[in-house]
Amino acid sequence: MRSRERSGGPSGKPPRRRRAPVGGFDHATRGVLATVRTQRNMKFHVLAAVAVVAAGLLFRVSALEFAALVLAMTLVLAAEVLNTAVEALVDLVSPEPHPLAKLAKDCAAGAVLVCAVGAAVVGLLVLGDDVLALARSVAGRP
């Protein structure tokens, strides 16, 4: 170790402790869990993701199709977490209603909508024929 690191560098402060690479995941996990607990739309997206995974396994989609489904679901879930972060930050810095605060929240929600519509299109392209065939067989139609 160099002398600068032992003494804390020019500021005289002790060096920052290094975290294990996995240690930073606790904050991320808390953020995702907080979003699931507090956001109704995130709960819906998680349930939809579970249903899509089940459908992909039931219909035995190809690995590439399954990857497309997983990527689309991940994008929606990540967008919902980011939307929650934007909403919290806007509420912190602008507790009173403000047009720019509304715009920021609307744009973040719009990003989730864009991702969700894209994911729905991917889901229909990958699973649509199989879901339709299953619905027809259940209804007794050829």
TrEMBL record:
Alphabetical list of Pfam families matching this protein: DAGK_prokar
Keywords for this protein: ATP-binding, Cell membrane, Kinase, Lipid biosynthesis, Lipid metabolism, Magnesium, Membrane, Metal-binding, Nucleotide-binding, Phospholipid biosynthesis, Phospholipid metabolism, Transferase, Transmembrane, Transmembrane helix
Cofactor note: Mn(2+), Zn(2+), Cd(2+) and Co(2+) support activity to lesser extents.
TM annotation in the entry: 44-61, 107-127
Annotated spans, Disordered: 1-24
Active site positions: 80
Names of required cofactors: Mg(2+)
Sites where the protein binds substrate: 80
CDD domains to which the protein is assigned, alphabetical: UDPK_IM_like
Subcellular location: Cell membrane
Molecular function GO labels: ATP binding; kinase activity; metal ion binding
GO terms for biological process, alphabetical: phospholipid biosynthetic process
Membrane topology reported for the UniProt record: Multi-pass membrane protein
Ligand binding (a divalent metal cation): 87
GO-annotated cellular components: plasma membrane
Residues holding ATP: 87, 96-98, 105-106
The EC number(s) this enzyme carries: 2.7.1.-
Family classification: Belongs to the bacterial diacylglycerol kinase family.
Name recorded for this polypeptide: Diacylglycerol kinase
Natural source organism: Rubrobacter radiotolerans (Arthrobacter radiotolerans)
